[in-house]
Amino acid sequence: MAEVALSLLLLTGAGLLIKSLDELHRVDKGFDETNILTMNVPLSESKYSEEGVWQAFQTELWQRVQALPGVEFAATSNTLPLGRSGWETGIAPEGVDPRDRDNRASVLNMIVHTEYFDVMSIPIISGRGFTLADDASSPPVAVVDETLAERYWPGENPIGKRITMEWDMDDQPSLSEGDVPVYRTVVGVAKHVRHYELQEPSRIEIYRPMLQANDTWGFSPFLITKTATDPTSLAQAVRDEITSMDADQPVLLVRTMTDVVESQVATFSAMRGLLVIFGALALVLAAIGIYGVMSYSVAQRVREIGIRVALGAQAGQVRWLMSKQGLRLALAGLALGLVGSLAVTQALQGLLFGVRAAEPATMVSVSVILLAVTLLATYVPAARATRVDPGTVLREE
């Protein structure tokens, strides 16, 4: 009974985690990680201390990588979705006093190259993405995600609306009365991206063009490349282009976007694997235990079985007689296991995604598996009982 109950508990936990992992892989991330190579290219603060030099490096790097055979799109950004980091700032729509902190919402602040949406396959729901014309000499623009648009302009067309997240500051190191908010015009609405984790939607998101980075230009950018084939096959070619531009330039965190996504569920996958292994071992031990109990029972009741056969009992009747004991124990174990599973799986709720802790389908499936194992484990000793020679048993009696 204990073996069956523990097997049910472990297999139920494993089943729930497997379903959760499947749901995580199916969740709409807002982007497509297929065939994307990423790397961090942190420029030296001393060598690229001026915005013009910094921007020139980014532009030339993009042009060189874009021209490589096998590259479909290339872009740079200040951070990566699911990369375990993000930039956040406060924003306010036009018509709301941005100086009042209560009016400012925290937003995920993305600074990206013009082809970023193409590289990441992030749909532009309305309006447009960025172009090379969106540079420092043109009016400030922004692309917002659908959640931001719905928050500030529900039921309205957000294209042409304005929002502020920057200030044209005077010489004071902090915000003062003389500072003027810089408003950006919304030119597009993008699909919401799960940036921090797959399990939960991110904060509202806003995108700024790289060429309009303004006072936030000196960050450590990520180079993101969309390839037609295996992205790792182009890693060295991209490295070579960077080295040819600056022999001392380091390149860090070279990995595919698929690796970035998988790192989000690595711990979850490891725990699932352990539960599957322990659940399988518990299932084997339960089968061995039930087989041992049934074998012992048959040995103890061999005289009774002989008499029953001598009196005309059929083989099927004898098998059922012997199997009932194992099935009763298994059913009792299942009942205990179900009660325990309802309690223990609640502790897993924080690890589950898209499934409930009390998932009837999983519990029923595991119970059916355990019953099948029980029937198999009881069949061999029960079948052996039908081969008892009543004459030999009676002579011994």
What does this structure look like?
- The protein is α+β, with helices and mostly antiparallel strands and 397 residues long.
- The protein folds into two domains: 2-24 and 266-396, no CATH class; 42-250, no CATH class.
- 46% of the residues lie in helices and 17% in strands.
- The chain contains eleven helices and eleven strands.
- The chain has helices at 2-26, 51-66, 116-119, 146-152, 235-245, 257-264, 266-300, 302-310, 315-347, 360-385, 390-396, and strands spanning 36-40, 71-77, 88-93, 105-112, 124-127, 141-145, 162-168, 180-190, 205-209, 222-227, 252-256.
- A six-stranded mixed beta barrel has the order 3-4-9-6-8-7. A four-stranded antiparallel β-sheet has the order 2-10-1-11.
- Helix 1 (2-26) packs antiparallel against helix 7 (266-300), helix 2 packs antiparallel against helix 5 and helix 7 packs parallel to helix 10 (360-385).
- The longest helix has 35 residues, at 266-300.
- It is elongated, with a radius of gyration of 33 Å.
- The model has no long low-confidence stretch (mean pLDDT 84).
Mean pLDDT: 84
Which stretches are low in confidence, meaning pLDDT under 50 for 5 or more residues running?
none
H-E string: HEHEEEHEEHEEEEHEHHHHHH
Give me the secondary-structure category: alpha+beta
CA(first)-CA(last) distance: 33 Å
Question: How is the largest sheet built, in terms of strand order?
Answer: 3-4-9-6-8-7
